Task: structure prediction
Amino acid sequence: MEKIRVLVVDDEESHAVAVAESLGRVGYDCVVATSGAEALRLIEEQVFDIVITDLVMQGVGGMEVLAKAKRELPDAEVVILTGHSTIKGAVTAMQAGASNYLIKPLDINELRTVADKASQSQRLQRSNIELQRQLNEKFGFEGVVGSSPAMHSVVARLRQIAPTSASVLITGESGTGKELVAKALHINSPRKNKPFVPLNCAELGENVLESELFGHVRGAFTGADRDRIGRFQYANGGTLFLDEIGDMPMAIQVKLLRVLETGEIVRVGTNDPVKVNVRLISATNRELAEAIAEGKFRQDLFHRIKVVSVKLPPLRERRDDIPLLIDYFLKEFASQHGKEIRAITPAVRKVLLGYAWPGNVRELRNVVESMVVMDADGVLDADDLTEDLQQVASGGKAEGLAGVDSLVGKRLDQIERHYIAETLKLAGGNREEAARLLDIGERTLYRKIKEYGIG
Result:
């Protein structure tokens, strides 16, 4: 594992250096800040696992450093240094989120013991992330669930892209899981221990979007009462995910292109460039080629953000994945909401497998969560379906079902053959699942498959 990074904050420089050196000798990667204000800046710009800060300092004090660390580095351990006269303040800091406190003058062995305890917590978190990564590999690529040929192709492409720093453009309909794929690329990249920072470009106006991306300085505009770093700076060393980039205003597109070409951002209200090292992942549900032709998207920016592209198929084109996704979401939400779900009836599975899912994976996920929340008996049945899907189940909204043909006037054996073949498709070729949906025995299904010559 990578070294544990420690920020040591004390306005007595000699003391701060002594603490850093004593921890550095036993393998910690230490950075020193000789004022609270400097500590606030470093916490904005870098990632630390442990923050060791004096409680009483001139200007910005330890409580402000603690509050900043809890906001910007929520997983970091914060240790407070205090004198005998301010032990009460240290207790207050513990109540505000500090993990421990040490009394000056420091005992080096005690300092290392406290640091080791904090680092063990950090290493445990990293181990859990690695374990989760290994577990997820059984089902997909960091939660990108799917066993269909379409998703196998996507996952294989992601595995090739992830270790690089290439800019990636993810395309696909709304609800296909573009942000999930972006997170998967980040977690499987060398930048995984740095921030993953998402931003939806469609939700913000031009001026707000510029400030969100690049930051601003105090007085840059009305209401700018303090300096603020933008998403690029916050993501430094990590990954910035720009969702719905096709809706980005042209003026911001120009500035984004400059950042990608120079590796520098300029905060609103200043001309001073700031170096950034960020991997950009973008996503859109729009056809950018059409936006370029309409003069709404810059072609040079398009080529910059699309060094590599990933296209996510809609759920209707990966129907084999629906049973796996249902089970995946059932486990997730049963655990999240403290519910025990023992079974899901064949009739409900048939509705879920046959529905067209215009909202894609997001819609399926929301429906399964709603069913888990509404369930009262541990068995998901028609009464747990959402109102729209209850209409589908009762036949009142047959247009919502996928692949249902008019079979009026055909022989009964033709109708039976059709429904067995279609059910096998919906079940992804899983004969056990198909038999359950058809409410017949597996042996009967095998006999029918052979009798009708179904491939």
Q: What stands out?
A: Residues 348 and 382 are 6 Å apart (CA to CA). The chain is about 45% helix and 15% strand. The longest strand covers residues 77-82. The first helix runs from residue 13 to 24.
